[in-house]
Amino acid sequence: MSKPRPEMIAETRAKLIAAARHAFGTVGYAQSSMDDFTAGAGLTRGALYHHFGDKKGLLQAVIQEIDAEMTARLNRVSSSAPTRWQGFVDECVAYIQMALEPEIQRIMFRDGPAVLGDISQWPSTNGCIAALSRSLSQLKADGVIVDVDEEATARLINGASSHAALWIANSDDPQETSKRAVQGFRTLLERLRVKGP
Hints:
Layout: H1 5-26, H2 34-41, H3 45-52, H4 55-79, H5 84-97, H6 102-116, H7 123-141, H8 150-169, H9 174-190
Helix pairs in contact: 1-2, 1-4, 1-6, 3-4, 4-5, 4-6, 5-8, 5-9, 6-8, 7-8, 8-9
DNA-binding region: 33-52
Pfam family, one: TetR_C_41
Domain HTH tetR-type: 10-70
């Protein structure tokens, strides 16, 4: 008995994304070929064109998958913190530190911007800014941070964390750069806190 069409389509997409993710993560976007993806998935080039249009479309799908996984991880980081403020800081720092992970470093912070353009213009960025704005609004309501424009501050934090991750990913010494970036970022965030009497 054959599988229902929607299930077959989802399986084909998943196979192509998994094969592309492996290739992009190991040899990089420029060095991987459409044959790598199709052979790895046991599918034809026609299937790739049908589902993703081209190699760039496949990269976008891989980035969406990794981005969703990163978001889930960051949510776990913030929800396990003892306070809302600590969760906010931990989540921001964890995002920056993810640039040390080889697959994320190569796909999200090297090849992604090189192929798809400025990371601040990616569709997922608006969701990140909205989530940051909500967190800032809650922190402000709790009296933890000073009175700020949530959207403006969210955009600045998003830009700083993205730039820090790009700096780490493209650094000659990512570990050392990460230490410096995290220290600087923590100092910036600390300026938002309401100072005690």
